[in-house]
Amino acid sequence: MKVTPKQRVDAINAYTQELEPVISIAARYNITRQGIWKILRKAGVNTSKGAGGASQIDISCAACNKEITRHRCQIRKHKRLFCSIECYYAYLEAHQSGTYQQSRQGQRIARQKIAVVFNLLPKHIVHHEDRNALNNMLSNLKVFANQGDHIRYHRGMPDNIYEVRVLWEDKTF
Fold this sequence. Notes:
- The chain has 173 residues and is of the alpha+beta class.
- It has three domains: 1-47; 50-95; 104-169, no CATH class.
- Helices cover 40% and strands 13% of the residues.
- The strands form two sheets. A three-stranded antiparallel sheet has the order 3-4-5.
- Helix 2 (22-29) crosses helix 3 (33-42).
């Protein structure tokens, strides 16, 4: 299948600007990945995967704005990227609505309360909406299918990449 000049420009923009993977661009235009690589190479786009290649892009840390280099796939998967774990925790601390209090007892009580109204499995995660593990009112609790969905919910992942499934939440308020 022949690719039109407009499709070439769209494919180049999808790869360089929107960070779309080559395989999905190829599927969109019904050609092979190698065909997309040839289009990119002819346009002068660096597609190498080695150090300094196109798979690595310079971006700024969401907390300290320090310049960091990350792979394209990391940028696609995460809404915010950080240069270190310290910056990640600093960002969480600055953007939390309330204080997060760790309490194993509070977690146990929350699971007991949810188990009365929902068939809670061991892999399900009970989330405290106000981040206070001692506030175990049903209106403050949500149930996620697994820890991955729970983390994506906390990090604010875009819905178009991963669907965050809330299995249960109190709808009475």
